[in-house]
Amino acid sequence: MKRRSLILSVLAVSVAGFGGATWFATRPGPMVEAEPLAPELAEAMIRPYSPILGPEEAPVTIVEFFDPACEACRAFHPIVKDIMAEHGNAVRVVIRYTPFHGEASEEAIRVLEAARMQGVFEPVLEAVLREQPNWASHGAPTPGRLLQIAATVGLDAEAARTQMLSPGVVAILNQDRADVETVGIRQTPTFFVNGISLDPFGEAELRRLVAAQVAAAQS
């Protein structure tokens, strides 16, 4: 009888310990309060022309400083899409071009802007990231390779050759470079959620910060 009681006591302590450990591992992080950005930073964070993924009027905005030639940006892309899917119409993503990989980055951005003019931005974005290892190595893409990739998902490559050189695309590249300097971006991807910097950086931290902002928006 005593042995049975001892076993039951040990099991009870174990269950309590497991429950406590589980709570500790999954407990919500502290709520991060949004502080108003300085006017010059707020203006540089989002431009009217910036590409938007998701509903334009969503209450939670992820600003991603994004380089299409960046391997980490490619790795985070499905995570960002999963976060958007998890929260339905509550989250949008604003893309800010951050050409840190020289010629490869700039050409990819020009292709993406041509795709936007033709209404095929998202499929071309998916193709550019999926095929990144085939065009972005060493920062010097094979001429025409990106257009070939984009053409497989609907881009009119001949029209794009002219669109990529348009003054509007040049202006976007120049303004985004200036904004990257103003905001102080040093690596990609860099995320802000409703103006809050993702610090420390990480998938779990991004998911937690977005969830907190969605909860705050819905309360």
Automatic annotation (TrEMBL):
Does the record bear Secreted in its keywords?
Answer: no
Span of the secretion signal? none
**Pfam families listed in its UniProt record:** Thioredoxin_4 (PF13462)
Q: What does this protein do?
A: May be required for disulfide bond formation in some proteins.
Keywords recorded for this protein, A-Z: Disulfide bond, Oxidoreductase, Redox-active center, Signal
* Record PANTHER family: DISULFIDE BOND FORMATION PROTEIN D, GLUTATHIONE S-TRANSFERASE KAPPA
Q: Which organism is it from?
A: Gymnodinialimonas ceratoperidinii
According to UniProt, the name of this protein is Thioredoxin domain-containing protein
Sections of the chain in a coiled coil: none
Q: Which ranges carry the Thioredoxin domain? A: 23-215
Q: Which family does it belong to?
A: Belongs to the thioredoxin family. DsbA subfamily.
